[in-house]
């Protein structure tokens, strides 16, 4: 409890973002099943952009570092489009769980990138923690981790969705590290969300996807989901700059377990035993990484 009392409000904001994210992947999938895939996420992110603009207002772009505005902004938009598309293009609920786990490569990657960026100091056991985390994620994708032909066979069932999730994980890791380096206290997330929403609408119209008008219940679900996503990202951007980054990175390692449980309950999916063994390995790897790194002053 004394440790919890020392956490500043920005760290708590980051923790709340993690909780929201872990709960929303399955909800987004349910919405995309009721509407055209890109249309659904375009509607969700339109509400996300609106909510975050109401919370933070439109940022003053002229005062922001160009490296943050254009560099981090591009990473943000690309990640959102790719990851949400991977969820929308999943063929079934089991693939949603797998895509979620591939996306959760970003926490260990963030540790590695933060070390290279000299934001974190480290001890050698961090390498073991990273290997355990990646091994756990590989076990989720393919229980027989040494059988590479089977791994490729699994990935070939939906290469587009899996590739989007993997590329997205790398992009979000870069965004997390570079935001801390270049943002200098600025928050352009409202702008990033607006550009993301516009980009999704462009993809929707260019792909000639049919437009189906949601009913009242679906509008409510879209508005609530979009608003929560906007709040989560608004909080996360600030927590990256002013919160306890080491603790936040640790907690992100536990997202696979929480998100998997939520997805299992919401989507009525039943993962295999190897899935849970993989999540345990991710958790062990998280603890090793947490013990082996420290935020540079």
From TrEMBL:
The chain crosses the membrane at residues 12-32, 38-56, 68-90, 96-117, 124-141, 161-178, 190-206, 218-236, 248-267, 273-290. Keywords: Membrane, Transmembrane, Transmembrane helix. This is Aromatic amino acid efflux DMT transporter YddG. The keyword Transmembrane applies. NCBIfam families: PRK11689.1 (NF008676). The gene is yddG. Pfam families: EamA. Residues 161-288 form the EamA domain. InterPro entries: EamA_dom, EmrE-like. The keyword Membrane applies. It comes from the Bacteria. It comes from Acinetobacter rongchengensis. One of its GO terms (cellular component) is membrane.
């Amino acid at each position: 409890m004394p440790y919890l009392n020392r956490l500043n409000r920005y760290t708590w904001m980051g923790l709340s973002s993690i909780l929201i994210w872990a709960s929303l992947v399955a909800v987004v999938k349910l919405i995309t099943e009721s509407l055209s895939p890109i249309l659904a996420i375009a509607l969700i992110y339109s509400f996300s952009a609106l909510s975050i603009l109401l919370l933070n207002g439109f940022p003053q772009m002229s005062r922001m570092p160009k490296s943050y505005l254009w560099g981090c902004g591009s990473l943000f938009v690309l990640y959102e489009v790719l990851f949400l598309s991977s969820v929308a293009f999943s063929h079934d609920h089991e693939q949603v769980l797998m895509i979620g786990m591939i996306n959760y490569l970003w926490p260990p990657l963030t540790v590695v990138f933060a070390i290279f960026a000299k934001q974190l100091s480290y001890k050698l056991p961090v390498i073991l923690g990273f290997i355990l985390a990646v091994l756990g994620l590989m076990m989720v994708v393919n229980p027989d981790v040494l059988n590479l032909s089977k791994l490729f066979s699994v990935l070939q069932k939906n290469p587009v969705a899996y590739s989007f999730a993997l590329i997205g994980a790398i992009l979000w890791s870069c965004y997390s590290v570079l935001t801390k380096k270049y943002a200098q206290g600025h928050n352009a997330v409202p702008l990033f969300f607006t550009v993301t929403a516009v980009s999704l609408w462009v993809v929707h119209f260019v792909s000639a996807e049919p437009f189906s008008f949601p009913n009242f219940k679906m509008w409510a679900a879209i508005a609530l989901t979009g608003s929560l996503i906007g709040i989560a990202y608004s909080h996360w951007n600030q927590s990256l700059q002013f919160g306890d980054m080491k603790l936040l990175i640790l907690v992100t390692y536990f997202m696979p377990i929480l998100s998997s449980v939520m997805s299992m309950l919401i989507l009525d999916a039943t993962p295999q035993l190897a899935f849970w063994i993989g999540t345990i390995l991710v958790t062990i790897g998280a603890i090793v990484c947490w013990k082996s790194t420290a935020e540079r002053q």
